[in-house]
Amino acid sequence: MAKVFFRLQKFLRRTQFLLFFLTAVYLMAGSLVLLQRARLAAQQGPRGASGLALPGPDVGPGAKDADPHLAESPGAQLPVGTDTLPEVEPWHSPRWMASRNSELRWLRRRWFHRFIGDQEPMQTAGLRAMRGTTKHKGTYVGCFSDDSRERTLKGAVFYDLRKMTVAHCQEACAERAYAYAGLVYGAECYCGNKLPATTSRPEECNSECKGEKGSVCGGVNRLSVYRVEELQAAAPQRRNVIYRGCFRAPENLTDTFPASWIQPNLTVEMCSEFCSKKEFPLAVIRGQECYCGYPTGRFPLRHGADRRLCSAMPNASSTATGRYCLAYQTPVQDTRCTDRKFLTTKSKWFIALSSFPGAGNTWARHLIEHATGYYTGSYYFDGALYNKGFKGEKDHWRSRRTICVKTHESGKTEIEMFDSAILLIRNPYKSLMAEFNRKFAGHLGYAADRNWKSKDWPDFVNSYASWWASHVLDWLKYGKRLLVIHYEDLKQSLIPKLKEMVEFLNMTVTEDRLLCVENNRDGNFKRSGAKQKDFEPFTQEMKDLINRYILTVDEALRGRNFTGLPREYVPR
C-alpha cells in the first residue's frame, strides 16, 4: 500500500511540474505576440494622422468611427412640436460602442508610438545647433533665456506640436518682415525685432524639433534664436495692413500712444512699417504724424466717425482735420492677451462650454482663453486643436485645471455631472453647414460640391437636425445653472457678451485685455479659401423639418425665461 501511494505521489509531482512548465511557456508566447503587435503598431501608426489626432475622414480603417464628433450619436428623432424627448439612451447603441472602441484603439497606438519616440536619447545639443546652422538659411545667433511673462520676441506667435521645424519658423517670421525667429519647447515659434537680453549655455537648448529629427528648437525656457533678415528679400511679403476706420483723435495723442513719428508726405505704408518695426499692432495717422500703440480705453476703436471726415486719399498727409485720425492694424500680433496657463489650484466649479457641433465652440474657447489667460479643456481629444495651441486638449477633462470644458454631449447623466454651463447656440442652418464642412475638409476647409450633392448631405441633415434641437432641450431640462449665448450675438457684440461669459466663469479681466481679444478675435480657426459655389444646399423638405425644430427650441427657451432665438433663426 505504501509503495502504491509513493508512486501516485511521484506521478502527481511530475504532473504538477509539467503543468507549471506548460503555463510558463504559454505566458511567454503570449507576451511575445503582444510585444510584436505593439512594435508593429508603433512602426506603422495611423498613416496621415497629425499629432495625436484621431484619423480624419480619409484616413485609416473605420474613419467615420474614429471621428470624435461622431461619437456623440444624434440619438432618437425629436417629436415635432414638443420640447421633451423620450427616454432613449443613444450612447449605448452598438454603433456608438464600436466608435468608442475604435477611438480608444487608435489613441492607445498613438500614445505608445509617442512614448517610444520620446525614449530616443538626445545627442549633444551643441553639435545639433551647429548642424541646424549649416542646414537652414537663417543665421544661428545662439541660445537665450525665455521669460514667458515678458518675452522679447513677441511680434508673432505660432504653435505646431507635431510638425514644427526651424525652416518653418524662419520662413513664417521672414514673411512678416521680422528680424529674428526663436524656437522653444520644440514646437513654439516666436518672432521679433529685438534679441533677448540673457544668453544661456548652448547645451541648454536641447529640445528636438517636433517635425525635424536632428534639429534643435530651444528647450525648457530656452530659445534657439536665428537671424532671418537675409530671407526677407526672397520671402513673399504678407504685410497686410487692415483699415480699421476713421475715429475722433484723443485729446493728447502722445500720452495715448507710446511711439510717434513725423514725416512729410507720410503714407499708410510708411507709418505701418514704422509701427511694425516697433512691434505695435496699431498705426494711427493724423496729417504728417504717425502714432503707434494698442487699442485702449482712451482709443478703443469703437464708434467710428463718417469716413468723409477723414481723407480717403492713399496719401494720408491730406487728412481732413486735426480732430480725426485714420487707424490701421499692422501685421504685428497684439500679444497682451496671448499668455495662457493651467489653473494653479483645482477649480471649485465644474463648468461646461456646451454646443452642438459647428456652433462656434472652438472660437468661443479661443476668446475665453485669451480673455482669462487660462486654458479650456475638452471632453474629447482633437489633435489639430492641440497642435494649434489648445493645450487643454491633452489634459484630462475632469482634472479641473481648465477654466471650462468643451462638450457636445447631451443626456441627463452627461449634463448633471457639470455644476454649470455656458450653452452656445447657433443658427441650425449655419451649424449644419459648418459641421458638414469640418467632416469633409477639416477645421479650416470647405466641403467640395460633390459632397453637397451626394447622398451624404441629406442623410446628414436628417440625422443631425434633430440632434441640434435635442441638445438644447436636454441642457435646458437637466442643466443646473445656465448662461445661454447666441453665436450671432457674440459675433455682433463681442465685448459685452464676452464680459458676460467671463463673469459667469467667476473671473475678472481688464478692459485692455478684452480690447486685445477683440484685436485677435478670429484666432487660427477662421475658414479661408474658396467657399462652395452658390447653390441652395437645403431642399424645401429639409427647411420644413429644420424650421419646426427652430420653433420648438424657441418656445422652450422662452418657457424657461431665457431670451428666444434671434429673429434670423425663426421662419417668418
Give a nutshell description of this structure.
With 572 residues, the protein is an alpha+beta fold. The chain has helices at residues 2-44, 63-66, 94-118, 125-135, 166-175, 253-256, 268-277, 361-372, 383-387, 412-416, 428-441, 449-452, 456-478, 487-492, 494-504, 511-519, 540-559; strands at 139-145, 156-159, 180-184, 188-192, 208-209, 212-216, 222-227, 242-248, 259-262, 282-286, 289-293, 324-329, 351-355, 377-378, 405-407, 420-425, 482-486.
Largest sheet: 5 strands, antiparallel
Total number of beta strands: 17
Average per-residue pLDDT, rounded, comes to 77
Query: Helicity, in percent?
Result: 25-40%
Derived from helix and strand composition plus strand pairing, the structural class reads alpha+beta
Give Rg in angstroms. 29 Å
Distance between the termini: 102 Å
Strand portion:
5-15%
**Helical run tally:** 17
As residue ranges, the low-confidence spans are 37-134, 312-320
How would you portray this structure in words?
The protein is of the alpha+beta class and 572 residues long. The chain contains 17 helices and 17 strands. The strands form four sheets. The protein has a five-stranded antiparallel β-sheet with strand order 1-7-3-4-2, covered by helices on one side. A five-stranded antiparallel β-sheet has the order 8-12-10-11-9. A hairpin with a 2-residue loop joins strand 5 (208-209) and strand 6 (212-216). The longest helix is centred in the N-terminal third of the chain and has 43 residues, at 2-44. The chain is globular and about 120 Å long. The relative contact order is 0.09.
